[in-house]
Each structure stands twice: as C-alpha cells, then as structure tokens.
Design brief:
Layout (H helix, E strand, L loop, with lengths): L14 E4 L10 H5 L7 E4 L2 E4 L2 E4 L3 E5 L5 E5 L5 E4 L4 E4 L2 E4 L8 E4 L4 E3 L2 E3 L6 E4 L6 E3 L2 E3 L6 E4 L5 E3 L2 E3 L6 E4 L6 E3 L2 E3 L6 E4 L3 E5 L2 E3 L4 E5 L4 E3 L5 H4 L8 E5 L10
Parallel strand pairs: 1-2, 2-5, 3-6, 4-7, 5-8, 6-9, 7-10, 8-11, 9-12, 10-13, 11-14, 12-15, 13-16, 14-17, 15-18, 16-19, 17-20, 18-21, 19-22, 20-23, 21-24, 22-25, 23-26, 25-27
Length: 263
C-alpha cells in the first residue's frame, strides 16, 4: 500500500483517493469523480493514468501528488473537460493528449475555478482553451508546453485571470487571445521559445498585459492586429513587460498575424 500522505480537505468533506495498485482506492480519477459529494475532493497518487475527465455544472476539487509525479493522458479527446463548473480547484497534475485528432489537453468552458501547478502538453490544437462569456477561471503557475498550436488560447468572450504561467516550446504562440468581449488578465507569464511570438491579440480582443516576460521566441514578443485593444497601449507595452530578446523585435501590429502559418 502506498505511503503517500493524503492532503486535508479544507471543506471538511471526504477525500477520495486514486491509486491503481491499492484495492481500497479508486483505480482512476474519473471513477472517483463519479462518487464525489458537494464538499468532497479527489486525491490522485503518483502514477500514469489513461483517463478522460468530464465535469459539468458542479464543483471540482482534484488534487494530484505533483505535476512531475501524476500524468493523465487520453488518446480519444482531451483528458480534461470542464463545462459550467461554478467553483473548485485542480492542482498538481500533468494533462497530456496523445491522440491524432484536433483536441486540446485542457478544455474549459464557462467555468469559475482555479487551475494551478499543473502541466498541459502535446495538444494537437492549443494546450489549454479557455472560452465562453462566463469563463472566469484563474489559471496560474502552470507549465504549458509543446502543443501543436498555441499554449493558452482565450476566445469567445472569456475573461480569465492568466498569471505566473510558463508557456514554452509551443508551435504557434505562447498565449493567444481572440474575439470581441475576450478580456483576460495576462500577468507575470513567461512566454519563451515559442515558434511564432510570445503573445498574440487578434480579431477585436482586449487584454491587460502587465509584467510578462516574452523572450527567445522565433518572431516577436507580442503581436497584435490593429483592431485589438491591449492595456497598456502598444507603445507602452515594452515599458510594462519584458519583450526581449526576440529576433523580430519587441512587438508588432499587423492585419495578417497568421500569415506565417498560411491563414
């Protein structure tokens, strides 16, 4: 039996433990999530789990033993889908998509919860998609890496707080924001070694962009379209963020921000 300590549930409810080698525990995270009550949490012991988690219209409280020790992967669709989740937290887990269809590792629709100290990797689309006008998730202190499009994609009117994340080695942008009404807070993120630029704002997107570091990307630190609305203004971005070194420069305004990928 594993000696892994079980974290205290701050709400006073049960903690359901996931451990595939302990017959007294749940074999997978999804099996435990089916049994949780209103104030329960799920704790995932170290291991690699092939699983797909879908949480809809109820709180989520999912705690892993650490993103370097717990991995949840899926071949058919992304490993995590949250839809209209009103509260809760997810922490300490790596989510990895290993299929060949167009899916992301984390899919967060119209939810209000916290996701922290996790990893999202190898999505065929973006690693993390935050979308919908009621999306107010706090996404902080995560590692988002090696996804086939952007690391974090905010769209369809989402207004999350995206802070203190490391977005690295993604094929497109570290963070991308699109659509009218999309207004994330981008604060203290590190976007580095992405194949295009560190941050992209396009198609009427708005965003607070403060204290971010965009360095060693293949093109610019920040790229935006003329119809986007960053805060601070484009001319002030370099003073409020660290946007160098990047080969093409600190920032650029272009009406064809996706021309490098044929769009």
């Amino acid at each position: 039996m594993s000696e892994e300590a079980i974290p205290t549930n701050p709400l006073g409810g049960r903690t359901l433990v996931v451990d595939p080698v302990d017959p007294c525990c749940y074999p997978t995270p999804s099996a435990a999530l089916k049994d949780v009550g209103e104030s329960d949490q799920v704790y995932v012991r170290p291991g690699i789990y092939e699983d797909k988690l879908v949480v809809t219209q109820r709180p989520v409280r999912l705690v892993g033993a650490g993103r370097d020790r717990v991995q949840i992967f899926s071949r058919r669709g992304g490993p995590l889908y949250l839809q209209e989740v009103p509260e809760g937290w997810i922490t300490g887990i790596t989510f990895r998509y290993v299929g060949s269809d167009q899916h992301s590792a984390l899919n967060i629709l119209n939810s209000t919860c916290m996701i922290t100290q996790c990893r999202a990797m190898e999505g065929i689309l973006s690693g993390v998609v935050l979308y919908g006008p009621e999306c107010r998730v706090t996404f902080s202190d995560n590692d988002v890496c090696r996804n086939r499009e952007s690391g974090i994609f905010v769209f369809a009117g989402a207004q999350p707080r995206v802070a203190d994340n490391r977005c690295r080695e993604n094929h497109h942008f570290g963070i991308a924001v699109r659509d009218p009404g999309s207004r994330p807070e981008l604060v203290r993120n590190l976007c580095e070694e992405n194949m295009l630029s560190g941050i992209l704002l396009f198609q009427h997107a708005e965003s607070l962009i403060v204290d971010n570091v965009c360095r060693n990307n293949q093109h610019w630190g920040i790229l935006m379209t003329p119809d986007s609305h960053p805060n601070p203004t484009p001319s002030e971005l370099s003073a409020m963020n660290r946007l160098e070194p990047n080969p093409a420069g600190a920032y650029a305004v272009s009406d064809q921000p996706l021309s490098q990928i044929g769009r």
